[in-house]
Every structure is written in C-alpha cells, then in structure tokens.
Amino acid sequence: MKTTSLVSPTEILRKYNDTFDQPTFGDQYDKVYDGVYYFIRNEGKQIRPLLLMLACDMLGGDIDKALNPAYAIQMFHNSTLVHDDIIDKSEYRRGQLTVNKKFGRNTAIMAGDMMFIIAYEYLLNHSDNSNLHQILKIFNQTAVKIMEGQQIDLEFENRDHISEDEYLSMIECKTSVLIAASMEIGAIIAEASEQNCHHIYEFGRNIGIAFQIKDDWLDVFGSAELTGKKIGQDIVRNKKTYLFVKALQLANEEQKIKIDHALKQTDDNKKINKVLELYHELNIQGHTKEKMNYFYDKAFHHLALIDIDPYRKESITEITNQLYTRKK
Ligand code: IPE
Ligand code: IPE
Ligand code: MG
Ligand code: MG
Ligand code: MG
Fold first, then answer.
1. Strand ranges in 84-137 using DSSP code E only, listed in sequence order
2. Residue whose CA lies nearest to ligand 2 atom number 14
3. Nearest CA to 35 among 88, 120, 87, 93?
4. Is 84 in the pocket of ligand 2 (CB under 6 A)?
5. Atom of ligand 1 nearest to the CA of 178
C-alpha cells in the first residue's frame, strides 16, 4: 500500500468544490435543466463525496482520482432527493422550496432523471479504467437497493405496525448503502485490500443506519432553520420512523390508543403535538440515542479492523463524530 500524506477534510472539500464549481450540462438555456441548476446551486452537506474521498485518502489513494466518482455519487444522491420530495410531498429542502414545489412535479421527475444520467457521465470521466467496471457494479447495485428501500418506506405509510427489524432493513436500503458504497468506492480507488474494503463498507453501513435514525430524530426535534426542511412532516405523512416504531413498541394499551387517536387527527399541528407528547412520555429521545450508539459502536469496531496506521483514521473519525451530533 502507498502511504501518501493525508489531506484535511476542509482541504478535500475545497478541492472538490473548486473542481466542480458551476458545472454546465447540455445547453445552459434549455429549460429542462432549470430544476437541475436550481437544486445543485445549493449543495447540502456533501457528506457522501467527502467520505468517499476521505476513505480514499486514508487508505493511501490519490484524491484527485476520487473527484469524479465523488461528484457522481453526489449527483446521484441529489437525484434521489428530488424524487424523494415528490414521493414525500415535501415543501422545503436545503432551506428552499423543493424542485417539485418550485417547478411542478413533471419538471422534478425530469430533473431527478437528468441528475441520475449526469452521475453516470461523471463515473465515465473516472480516469482509472482498471476499476471502473467494479465501481459501476457497486453503483448500480446501490441504486437498485435505494429504490427498493424507497418503495418499502412508501408502503410502510399504510401499515399500522412495523417491527424494528423491518424498519432497520428499510433504512439500510434507502440510506445506509449509499454511504457504505461511497466509502467502498474510495477504498477501491486507493487499491485497498479486499479486507480493508470490506471493513470500510461495514463502517459506512453502520454509520449510515445511524445517519437515518438521526434524520428521523431531526424531523421532530431539529430546527427548520438548520435542517432546511419543514419539521414534523414524517408524523404528518405517517412515516414509520425509528421514533414512531420505538414508540409503538414501548407503548402500553392506553398509550397505543392515544397514538391511534393522534394518527386520526386531521389538523397537522395537533397531530404533531399529540405524537410529540407520547415521544416525551416514552423517552423516545433516550432510546434513539441508544440505538445510534449501538450502530456507532459497530461501525468503530470495523474501523479498528482496518489494517493501517491508526493516525490515518483520525479525519474519518472526526467527521463521523460530527455526523452524530449534527443539527442539519
Ligand atoms: C438526506 O440526506 C436524505 C437522507 C438520506 C437522510 P442528507 O442529510 O445528506 O442531505 P443533504 O445532501 O445534506 O441535503
Ligand atoms: C430519504 O429519506 C432517503 C432517500 C432520499 C433515498 P427521507 O425521506 O427521510 O429524507 P428527507 O428527510 O426527506 O431528507
Ligand atoms: Mg422519503
Ligand atoms: Mg423525504
Ligand atoms: Mg427524513
């Protein structure tokens, strides 16, 4: 394994953003790109490209080689968000109207599709042909899993009872596999050993599960100003979040009846407040934290098994710890 010097997360993101500053797709004036430009002007946390490049750097790879795949992953992530906002009927994302609300559903469908194709364009720009096939394979398998997870998430809206295991396998598909795959692709670009690729994937998979649990938590206990999304919408849409699944699991008969009544509320704010009352009664915040800790412990177990100098793991540790306490 090569032992190139490490690059800080800030430097990595600066390089990434300098490289992909104001990209142009097709004809700038073609209206079909309106939704795409509108969405990518406001790029969010960029956690997946950052983790991809950090994994590559940590394992001795050249981050220049990771830039295009990292951008591809972010583009694909963007495409899933634009479609997710149609599916979830969301009004705000990243502090602005969703593409769906701003341009209408049809344009949002096309913008999402367009970004999916743009993702492949950037994968094809990847300079190393020796691993492109392997990266494409992971990318496709991941994309398929996400669609499966999104479909299950949607079906859960109409089911009253979801077990914790069912919930966990749904979020593994819709969210955690992309974080895991991002890190694995970074490792592949670094030509890491099969064992190290495996452990970085498992690290990402467990961090990714905790990431979605935190996303569920932020929907209720976060601030709209920081998350850029409208608070309480998972409750309004009958989403089976970790908080909801845990509340149903812990509720006594009386509390179950209360949850049932809350769900029948037609006034959104009343519905949110009634469910929130139950979450407080059942200490759902404490249980959520416990679950996140469980997956963080599993993740760090795999990070420890990656066979490199421990100091090389410091940046990834720092960034993933920031994800644990994130407010957006
Ligand atoms: C939101 O992802 C969708 C989930 C998988 C929870 P992020 O929280 O990474 O969103 P952005 O890209 O920073 O806006
Ligand atoms: C999103 O889950 C997962 C994907 C986009 C694949 P959510 O629906 O919970 O994400 P947010 O809260 O809208 O960002
Ligand atoms: Mg969703
Ligand atoms: Mg959503
Ligand atoms: Mg959410």
1. 92-93, 96-97
2. 81
3. 93
4. yes
5. 5
Q: Is the CB of 184 under 6 A from ligand 2?
A: no
Cβ atoms of 260 and 161 closer than 8 Å:
no
pLDDT tens-place string over residues 156-182: 999 999 999 999 999 999 999 999 999
Residue 3 binned pLDDT confidence (cut-offs 50, 70, 90): low
Query: Measured from the CB, is residue 81 less than 6 Å from ligand 2?
Result: yes
- Residue 60 alpha carbon to ligand 4 centre in Å: 36
What pLDDT is attached to residue 287?
A: 98
Residues 70 and 26: their CA atoms lie apart, in Å, by 21
Asked if the model's pLDDT at residue 112 lies above 60, the reply is yes
| 296 CA distance to ligand 3 middle (Å) | 23
Q: Is 67 in the pocket of ligand 2 (CB under 6 A)?
A: no
CA of residue 84 to ligand 3 center, whole Å: 5
Q: pTM for this structure?
A: 0.97
Distances (CA, A) of 322 to 267, 312, 318: 36, 17, 6
Reported as a single tens digit per residue, the pLDDT across 78-110 is: 999 999 999 999 999 999 999 999 999 999 999
In sequence order, the β-bridge partners of residue 92 are: 97
